[in-house]
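Can't attach files on this board, so I'm pasting raw text. These are the components:
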Amino acid sequence: MRDVAIIGVGLTKFGERWEVGLRGLMAEAGLAALQDAKISSDEVDMVYGSTMASGRFVGQEHVAAMLADQLGFNNVPATRIENACASGGSALRQGYIACASGAVDMVVVGGVEKMTDVTTSEATTALGGAGDQEWELAQGITFPGLYALMARRHMHEYGTTEEQMAAVAVKNHENGHKNKYAQYRKLITVDDVMKSKVIADPLKVLDCSPITDGAAVVVLAPLDKAKKYTDTPIKIVSSAQASDSLGLAQRESLTEIKATRIAADDAFRQAKLGRGDIDLIEVHDCFTIAEIMAMEDLGFYKKGQAAKAIADGETRLNAKLSVNTSGGLKACGHPVGATGVKQAVEVVWQLRGEAGDRQVKGAEVGMTHNVGGSGATAVVHILKRVN
Amino acid sequence: METAPASSWRRQNASYNLVGNKCEKCGAVYFPSRIICKNCGRESKLREHKLSGDGEVYSYTKITAPSDTFKDDAPYTIGMIKTAEGPFIEGHVVDNGKDVKIGAKVRTVLRRMYADGEEGLIHYHYKFELI
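---
Top answer:
Structure tokens for the assembled complex are below.
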């Protein structure tokens, strides 16, 4: 396996993008990535496109070929990757493997989701497919409901409070406030979260990531060729993924996402790095409890200790460890198929020192953590600036 | 959500009678049934196994933002139930006036789950009742 670098990134504004469809979102992010990488369309060898449920949201499948066509990559192999909310991270990993193997040189990885053309309850139904359709969704268990079951048990076992969960949303809105691509840029308070509408108790609407339109694209190249295109290639130092039972009921624990722990341990092993080497992380905060559990399962805090640490401000921008500098899924938005790719875009900007008001000082190593469903898939990448 | 009648029919032994399966080789009990035992792989010896329906609440939530299928039922309570035989099962906790809490004892009851519109099939399913 050879070293692989990200040489270009592109992102759309996230939010309710009524004026643009699936095709337009992909083209917008794709063009930005090509311009950033300073490559021409005919240099691209392969495309991976990710979306979770474009068929449910807009009736369109076969999106990787559409992405390749929109960006003018004449006839290159293009393949869609679907892994629920971890589709983007999974596509990035497939692109990494393809490039690292030597099979192809330049790979474009694009994630997209166009979610606002359907009603909220239709979106809830589509997202429910990330869990077990027969034994969860068909029984009235919504996707927030699954995380609510985890949250309640976490509260019971570790004394985690609703206010501590709310503090995750407050912190992520603080970061989203500084990100021009974010869906929500408004500052909120713990009180705002506590008083927001209950979705699946103890989770309230401000504990949940929103319904978002958006796309993200990255360009991968072998590290030895990357210098030709950029002075600051961002090396993918590890790419790890794990799976678990589709349904929550079949897991070993309700308060741990085991796939995250396995993928994280593998990622640190591959990178020969420790937790202390990480300067920033984009974690999968589809719900506030998910960020708390992620910080424990990734190995940054012992089980039951992350909630207090987050509420105490340890993971705010430029505090002990900067977490979700983009605003995370909560404030930046969560176009499900795009999220895993967008996390890499944010980390690349941070490692290049291009993150503006939300720049993590001296950032050299960053990490992404993307979860599918209630934890049936977890994908972890570690990225490093190459000087 | 329209459900194919065959889809409900395939699951009726589980949905109506709480029948899962048990591996005679290692003793593991599964609900819903698995084709292959997680411990024994292709050496599995799985046989039908009916659960008692007894269990306790391990976690719970009240759903106030449901999918289309359940929009007329909200709010309703969903429990993660630890069954007496071991497997965890997620399902509705019916309102019988008792307060749901972690550790509360439950038993299964058969109830109407949802209907495919005014004229369509009515789907029945196990739910849980607080004792």
